[in-house]
Amino acid sequence: MERVALTVFLLICSNTFMTFAWYYHVKKSAWPLVAAILISWLIALPEYILQVPANRAGHRDFGGPFTLPQLKVLQEAITLLVFTAFTLWVAKEKMRATDVAAFVLIFVAVAVSMLGRASAAPEPAAQRGGADEVTK
């Protein structure tokens, strides 16, 4: 459970940076395009510093509980939660009913992806002998 919590925490932090990098400049119409690009790029750097450890902590090959597809679906759901908060509190825009319905469908996808998480996922590479093992 610690790996799940660490992965989710790092993904939330990572997605917060990336959401600001991708969308904050939209509400800053006074910023020239070049400034928006450079500022966004600088905001995105910490996102990668958090995203890479999140994926490693969460992936089965590094002792985590998730497969790559599960990590991706989880990350998308977290992105939507962070984006919704950003939209409401920073951008001061309202969500439409169709936006909420689309987000709910993505959360259903997370639930489907997580079904049978422990039993359906392959063994971690460390238990299989790693990628460098020579088969005879």
Task: Write up what this structure looks like.
With 136 residues, the chain is an all-alpha fold. The protein has one domain. 71% of the residues lie in helices and 0% in strands. The chain has six helices and no strands. It has helices at 2-23, 33-58, 68-90, 97-114, 117-120, 125-128. Helix 1 (2-23) runs antiparallel to helix 2, helix 1 (2-23) packs across helix 3 (68-90) and helix 3 (68-90) packs antiparallel against helix 4 (97-114).
Summarize the structure.
The protein is mostly helical and 136 residues long.
Topology:
Layout: H1 2-23, H2 33-58, H3 68-90, H4 97-114, H5 117-120, H6 125-128
Low-confidence stretches: 131-136
The helix/strand series, from N terminus to C terminus, equals HHHHHH
Q: Tell me which oligomeric state these chains represent.
A: single chain
Number of helices: 6
Give helix % range: over 70%
Strand percentage:
under 5%
Keywords, separated by commas or semicolons:
mainly alpha, 136 residues, 6 helices, flat, single chain
